[in-house]
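Key idea: predict the complex, not the pieces.
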Amino acid sequence: MNKGLVLTYLSLIVLLPLAAIATKAFENGPSGFWTAVSSPQAVAALKLTVIASLIVVVINAVMGTLIAWVMVRDDFPGKSVVNSFIDLPFALPTIVASLTLLTIYGKDSPLGINVAFTQTAVVIALLFVTLPFVVRAVQPLLLSLDRDMESAAESLGAGRWRIFRQIILPNLAPGIFTGIALAFARALGEFGSLVLVSGNVPFKTEVASVFIRGQIESDNLVGASAVSVVLLAVSLALLACVTLIQRKGLRHGN
Amino acid sequence: MATDVAAGAAPAPKQPKIRKEKPDGSRLARWALRYTALIYLGMLLLLPIAAILQHTFEDGVGTMINAITTPDAVAALRLTLLTVVIAVPLNTVFGIACAHIMVRTNMRGKPIINGLIDIPFAVSPIVVGLALILVYGTGGWFGADLAAAGIQVIFSTPGIVMAVIFVSMPFVAREVIPVLQEIGDDQEKAAETLGASGWYTFWRITLPAIRWGVSYGVVLTTARALGEFGAVTVVSGRISGETETLPLYVQKQFETFNSVGAYSASLVLALLALATLLILNLMRRKES
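Result:
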């Protein structure tokens, strides 16, 4: 097949636009870039984005592993339905997610939980969109885990917690790390699911992507590009981490 | 595997027969884990879906149907389908070609291509929109030339289509690459020795072998293209009836306090999402 065409397509669709952002971000030199990135509102938005994403990946690491465990090792009626529902956040348009989360966790909440327009809402929305990453990265590892190791440990007198900590967890670690790296990258750039539920209040619930959107609307393209470059740099570093984890996994035998 | 996950595609691993385990003190722990998982999933996934259904039908089916057949809603649906019809075939052809290059050729710089394919997953949709404005908008790199040629990209359909192409680009390639690796090239080599041309081999040998991977990728591409919000919102200009896709329509209706309209359009999108899950599930069964 035609390599030239593939490379041209990739360059046109991916490289050219990203180059435009990098160029714009440094249009006024490094100091212009720094001024834009260090404005109080930008710093507040970046800080919220990073902290919320960190909280989200910690919860994901625990809950994702737990859910994967239940899906692989447990059995109950309707499990396969639950299992296919886990991909819902990838299939559901983000604006729909935002609307429904507002319905459930907003002022008319049927659960009596009203967290709309708070930082909690930001975390909940991010938890929704990143749910599948850790589950789907851990599940195959758990399936291929040799159960004889666990039996051996058990017959040697190891307790359940010790078996989990010393045998199961180390084997799942690459999946967990891959999952949280991907979830973190997604959380950093998330926009659609936050739009309705977070309220987008500057200095309070405004995440980086919403801040960038605001800068575009007020025609400050240099500022928007500068913050974009920061987000891009972190995401690309995370992608590189994922690649490294996978290479390492391959080298270790499987 | 991880890239599969990124693609939102991780085929749910095949479930082995669960071995009967001897009953012991771990029953309680097992139940606790099971219900923790189910409650978490219920709060995060099931309740929201139930909420859309309830709100949509609050005022009866008639109201719902009226809400999704207003001229603006129909125009939004039409524009959404148009972007899908353009973006999905382009990304499918690109994805297959790209996977072929990655697996079957010894080109230099493959790791770079590999990284480039994943970029749309790592970039915020808002940043995608911004990038398109910087390249094709007024004052952008090609802005003046495009304006001189009378072509409007930003705040118009071409920009929306480009945004959708960007965000849905990697799925097919990501699905097909592992399949191509797994099937190997023995049959292709055999066909070649027997005198088959490259195209003939591709149509008769390679394509049938990778069809499930391709279909999987197409379904995921379509789902993403239907639902993209962030990138589209930046480049669309949001003119009702003209540059509004269905997800943008949902937001507009919600913000103008037409909640029935917002929920009805959401239901359409949610049903499409559920259909996606169903199709993926059926394909998974067929595969195994």
